[in-house]
Structures are given as structure tokens and as C-alpha cells.
């Protein structure tokens, strides 16, 4: 939330065959003002056109196929399962 892009040593990560798996910190924000700042940040990004990249969409009946896609680590975006 500092406004600066994080520095990620991609070359070193590739050489080490590391995986980069982002996650949300919203579940860990204890202070209300931190949550509000995070929500505002996301809302502004969505208003500017931020959209999730969707790799594949599965029907609920194909849940196991969706899970296999997730396990393969070959998806280039979100895996969506329709309810």
C-alpha cells in the first residue's frame, strides 16, 4: 500500500524453480483503517479496469477436471467452477 511496486528477483526465482503464489492479506488485517485502505485500493483498481485473468471455466459436474487443472500448475489465470 506504499504506492511502490515490490521488487521481485525474477531471475533468481527462475533459477531456483520457485513458484510465486500471491494471496490476499484482507483476512489478516486487524485494524479497521487498514481494511478500509485496502478496500479503497481495490475499488479504485477495479474502476480503472482491473479484471481477473480467467484461464478456464468448468461446470460443477466437472469439478475433478478443474482440480486436475489446478494441480497441474499450468494455468495462466483463475480457474472458475460454476455452481
Would you summarize the structure shown here?
This is Zinc-binding dehydrogenase. This protein has helices at 10-15, 32-47, 63-71, and strands at residues 54-59, 78-82. The chain is an alpha+beta fold and 83 residues long.
Strand content bin: 5-15%
Major β-sheet annotation: 2 strands, parallel
Between the first and last Cα atoms, what is the distance in angstroms? 34 Å
Written as H for each helix and E for each strand, in order along the chain, the element string is HHEHE
> In one word, what is the shape?
extended
Q: Supply the number of helical segments.
A: 3
Spatial strand sequence of the major β-sheet: 1-2
Radius of gyration: 17 Å
Q: What is the number of beta strands?
A: 2
Count of the domains: 2
Counting helices, strands and paired strands, the structural category is alpha+beta
User: Kindly state the mean pLDDT as a whole number?
Assistant: 84
Report low-confidence residues grouped into runs of 5 or more: none
Estimate percent helicity: 25-40%
Descriptors for this entry?
83 residues; alpha+beta; 2 domains; two-stranded parallel ribbon; 3 helices; 2 strands; extended
Q: What does this protein structure show overall?
A:
By secondary structure, the protein is an alpha+beta fold. It has two domains: 8-50, no CATH class; 52-83, no CATH class. Helix content is 37%, strand content 13%. The chain has helices spanning 10-15, 32-47, 63-71, and strands spanning 54-59, 78-82. Strands 1-2 form a two-stranded parallel ribbon. The longest helix has 16 residues, at 32-47. It is extended. The termini are far apart. It comes from Saccharopolyspora shandongensis.
